Amino acid sequence: MRTDDFDYPLPDGLIAQAPADPRDSCRLLVLNREDGSLEHRRFTDVIDYLGSGDLLVANKTRVMPARLVGHKRGTGGVAETLLLKRREDLDPLGHVWECLVNPGKRLRQPGTIIEYRAGGLHAPLSAGVVLTGEIADFLEGNRGGRLVRFEPQGDRTLDAAIHEAGHVPLPPYITKYEGDPEKYQTVYAMHEEHSAAAPTAGLHFTSELIKRIEDKGVGWKTVELEVGIDTFRLVTEDDPTKHVMHTERYHVPQDVVDAVHATKAAGHRVVAVGTTAVRSLESAWDPEAPASRPAVTARRFEDAPDSASATGCGDIVERRDATTSLYLMPGSTYHVVDALITNFHVPRSTLMMLVSALATREQIMAAYQAAIDEGYRFLSFGDAMLIR
User: Fold this and answer.
1) For residue 34, is pLDDT > 60?
2) Closest residue by Cα to residue 228 from 201, 198, 251, 203
3) What is the Cα–Cα distance from 96 to 81, expressed in whole angstroms?
4) Residue 121's pLDDT is what?
5) Is 215 exposed, middle or buried (0-12, 13-18, 19+ CB in 10 A)?
6) What is d(CA 284, CA 15) in angstroms, rounded to the nearest whole number?
7) Which of 17, 68, 176, 193 is deepest in the core (most CB within 10 A)?
8) How far out from the chain centre does Cα 182 lie?
9) CB contact burial 93-110 (16+ within 10 A = b; e otherwise)
């Protein structure tokens, strides 16, 4: 297996620059992984593929105003900072963050100060680049990664200063959108803001569609995974197994665990809304936990037999304030998730590998080629895919 196996030519004209309006009017490509067949539908038709007793699990994380545009003190040079992860382990006040900075070459030295203004007038926030041993070495190897210490000005809290100076960050391939930034949030997002990017598969859902799904007898539950640096990174190693996944914080509450147990026990499916929901649910699988019922595992692969099947162990368990660096690729076992609603992903990304682990690489590449031939819209604001 090589990283090139997950590459494909993506025409620039198919990268969506604005969301569908209404949200659920986008197209939906349905892949049946039993026979590889494809269907071309609209997203509102997703309800036709959900049965009473099935369970949808979505990521309720909300995108924070993580894009900060400032100026380097002394030179006035423009400096852009993208907040990724708060590091309370380095600063109990929470003022130190892992960030992506641009231009990275000019923001390498400890003590470099950046000032961020609001409305072009006052500067509610400043930041200094810091380095800390091995952590700094790791960030340095991640294309513009830095540790940055932020200082709010006046009597503001840091969160208040970030909200005053920051903007909701759109992916770098979305260059033309000037609409409502709330369209880059899901309708069911929590109030607190923790992520650097949206769980984009959920952008297609409207409140009305969710109600119709629930009225059909389909369960709806939410987890939380704080989307971080790997959303912005491609796999650069020729051997994808050598790629190092960044850790992300996630939460799988007990009510989700209970709902999964009930769904599986009744012989129904767990359907993940997005790859971040997949990573949350599969990260919550504990191979040492006593199995709560027979046949908990969603799917096993011939080339990766599941040890839990032989021992009778393994179950999904509650996770609170946990971290995950789970990396799913062909040969991995899905223990919880039976089907997936997702978007079309960037070539050579870990997300291409994740979806190829649920279906097969050949099925995914054939589906992507069909989507290109049919003019589907790709990436964050693009169309959707159901792998069933």
Assistant:
1) yes
2) 198
3) 13
4) 59
5) exposed
6) 33
7) 68
8) 17
9) eebbbbbbbbeeeebeee
Name, in order, each residue with C-beta under 8 angstroms of 83's C-beta and a sequence gap of 6 or more: 64, 66, 67, 68, 97, 99, 162, 166, 196
What pTM value is reported for the model? Answer: 0.88
Question: In this structure, which amino acid lies at residue 230?
Answer: D
> Quick one: which of 370, 364, 360, 359 has its CA closest to 347?
364
- Residues making up the chain, counted from first to last: 388
Question: Cα–Cα–Cα angle for 116, 121, 122, nearest 5°?
Answer: 55
Burial of 172 (0-12, 13-18, 19+ CB in 10 A): exposed
Per-residue confidence at 154, pLDDT binned at 50, 70, 90?
A: confident
SS3 311: helix
Find how far residue 257's CA is from the centre of its chain.
20
Token output for 41: 């539908």
Summary mean pLDDT of the chain: 88
Give me 185's structure tokens.
């949030």
Span 41-46, average pLDDT: 98
Predicted local distance difference test score (pLDDT) of residue 134: 46
Which amino acid does the sequence have at 292? Answer: S
Asked whether the CA dihedral 226, 227, 230, 233 is positive or negative, the reply is: negative
Max CA distance (Å), the chain: 66
Q: Any idea what DSSP says for residue 241? A: G
Tokens of 260: 């999964």
Question: How confident is the model at residue 346, as a pLDDT?
Answer: 95
Model pLDDT, residue 176: 85
pLDDT score for 143: 56
- What tokens were used for 27? 């197209």
Query: For 43-52, 307-316, 371-380, which range has the lowest pLDDT when averaged over its residues?
Result: 307-316
Nearest CA-CA partner of 101 in 93, 91, 90, 112: 112
Let me know: does 63 contact 198? Beta carbons within 8 Å. Answer: yes
Q: Which two tokens stand for residue 222?
A: 């939410």
Task: Say which amino acid occupies 300.
Answer: R
